[in-house]
Amino acid sequence: MMRSEFIERTGFEPTAAEYEQIEQEYMGTDIDKDQFCKQWVKQGGIQRISRQRVRRIEELEAEVQQRTKEYDELDAARCTQISAMQERHKQKVSEMEETIKAMQQGNFDLADSYQKMKEKYEEAERKLSVIKEAFAILKGEGKTA
Asked: Rounded to whole angstroms, how far apart are CA atoms 93 and 98?
């Protein structure tokens, strides 16, 4: 018997998997299609398959709930990890900014030190020049006008 013949005789439309079970039942009998279909309906075949469908739906709903719970737990764990990574990133950026500021300050300090040393050097050069002129005068090598 074909699935379409079964549907026509019983008015019930089983899924492909359900029809495989029905067909196995049919093949296990030695009665004709019409008689099998009448007996199948009379013996509660539709109700039995409907209960199986309900159980399967409940199983699938429970599985969906379990998967949703697992997803939510994984999502929460990932969010926690992301937050921790963002916090570490903020700390690293802050540390780098502090290092840059310190380096910039160090450069300013170096520039300031360089300027002060340059001024001292120029002052020492002026004093040395004055001393050289004084020695030259003392030696008689002074400037004459």
From this structure: 9
